[in-house]
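Can anyone check this?
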Amino acid sequence: MDNIYLINKKYFHSGIWKFSIGLYYVYKAFLRSYILFIV
């Protein structure tokens, strides 16, 4: 039981980590194009 819980926890956290990195890159690209559009 504990083993399955730890594995699930590990995958859950790595999923959040990958999601936040993806969100950060999308935000950066959006910001860059937004600045280029204004300037």
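Reply from J.R.: I decoded it. The CA atoms of residues 5 and 18 lie 20 Å apart.
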